[in-house]
Amino acid sequence: MKKNAIIYISIILYMILNTFVLIPMRFEYYNEIVNPLMWIILCALAVFLSKDSTIRVKGEQDKTQSLLIALIIYIIIYFLLGLLFGFQKTIYAKDIFSVIKNLWSFAGIIFFQEFIREALIKNEKKSIINYIFMTLLFAIINLSYDDIGSNYLNIKDGFTYTSAILIPTILESALCTYLVYIGGRKFSIVYRLFVTVPPYVVPIIPSLDWFGQALVGVILPLAVYVYMNYVHVNKVERLSKREKNKYNPVVYVPVFVLIAMLAGFVMGVFKYQPIAILSGSMSPTFNRGDAVVINKLTEEEKEKLEKGDIVQYISGSKYVVHRIIEITNDENGNKLFVTKGDHNNTKDADPVAVKDVIGKVSFVIPYIGYPSVWLSGAIS
Amino acid sequence: METKHKNMLIISLLAIVLVMAVGYAAFAQSLKISGTANITSKWEVHFDENSASYQTSSLMGTTPTATVTVGKDGLTAEFEAELISPGDTVTYTIPVVNTGTINAKLTSINLSGENLQVNQQNLTATSTDGNIKYTVTSPGTGVLQNTNGKANVIIKSEFVNKTSGNTNAYGSQAKLTVSLTYAQG
Questions:
Q1: Are residues B36 and A90, on separate chains, in Cβ contact within 8 Å?
Q2: Could you read off the pLDDT of A134-171 as tens digits, one per residue?
């Protein structure tokens, strides 16, 4: 207890020192020397204070192989997502010297942090509070705690930050704690390296928006947990075949596939995408709080739109779903759609160019858009 | 699953990764690559909107006005000048600062705007009616140190007297968007 308290206090003191002294002092070699050096010192302290006992790992080879399989599949799926959502360049330089420097600066400290996590577990294997506290502490460390406040200046930013960064980071930390528990630091180091290293060594990464990041960040640790827990239970617990089957990850495959399909549907990966209706301008055809499913149109299909069709289009920075009441042409002969909300007395101020049309409403699902309406209301 | 089967599976998966890497190298030119990912809070390179300033001058004694709006990504800024008469100029100076912990280097600068004809090479943009000309001075491609490195972007907006002899005040305005891309330096 005392030993862990010393380690925890040392880490918290370093967090304070880092936030209020080291980062503001702007050392030129902060990433390369100062930060790793501090983690080496903390790691040495933790190893010195850790119990001499080792974490016994039953079925180590099997677990290592299983973890590698899960993580290689993750890498394949992650980069295939780029074909759907496009890619972005990473900021990191890609000459060999810079790659090595970055790996040392940003991936190197993973080794020291996981040594510390293992020492904390060795010292208090049976304390739930210990597991919870270390999970939260390492999550905060890896969140760049000096930056958390700036992401909660308004509800919208707070929501996206919580979904895309905070929850995935906590889940990752929880998984790492579990991996150390069932197999020692080696497992959590391997996991974190697979997740952390790609941006430092490859020139491009998938361009996921916050929702995509949130999904990957939540599904990956959960899927790895389910799989590793199954492997662990099979090796360690004396359970009947029926009981073991309850842990079989195959049981969860339909759930993950369903979540992935649903997420793809909401994110607009498919031709049809649902959107929530935030205003009553189209009442009674559909009301505020309903959702409509938009059929995203090709350029050819847009040309075939007719009077009476309900379309989604972009107006400035806003998306609008209104009915076409007239089709005209501009002075250059380009087609324009005059639109109007069914509930409105007047037509929309500006006619809509073909390029601004996104899709056509296919059908309406009543009421399921209310969560988005409430969230939108809270944000605005 | 037996150990040797798992080994086979790992080798097969690694082979897929290898094929993907080869595929990437082969089709890199046709992949859709947009922008630069800001994936770490250690990376903080942005326009310092609070330190932006502008100076105006006028040949005819009118008072041009100007605004600067920095986008959410921090490296896109919109400059709007309302020039009243030929000879009016507005010169903006806006610093780019590095408050992160990673050195940064400018990799590209992009000008755009509605009703503007842009010359990317010379970093100039002229309104389609020919009245307003923007000239951008790049912050340079030197390393922006992580120790609060700073470099200025200077944007000059001038009312070109398109119609020779026209000395009347008649007003003209145009918005220019300047986007900078930085990478690790």
A1: yes
A2: 999 999 888 866 566 777 777 777 888 888 889 999 99
The ipTM (two decimal places) reads 0.76
Q: What domains are defined for chain A?
A: 2-267 (no CATH), 272-379 (2.10.109.10)
Interface of A with B in 11-40 (CB under 8 A): 23, 26-28, 30-31
Clarify whether A95 is annotated catalytic: no
**What number does CATH give the domain B45-184?**
2.60.120
In this complex, do A88 and B10 lie within 8 Å of one another by their Cβ atoms?
A: no
Per CB-CB distance under 8 Å, the chain A contacts of B146 are: 26, 28, 30
The CA-atom distances, in angstroms, between B172 and each of A42, B79, B84, B169 are 63, 14, 6, 9
SS3 A186: helix
Q: Indicate yes or no: CB of B37 within 8 angstroms of CB of A205.
A: yes
- Give the span between the Cα atoms of B142 and B56, in whole angstroms: 29
Structure tokens at A236: 């360690």
Say what the pTM is.
0.80
Looking at residue A38, its pLDDT comes to: 94
Instruction: Give the C-alpha separation, A257 to A260, whole Å.
Output: 5
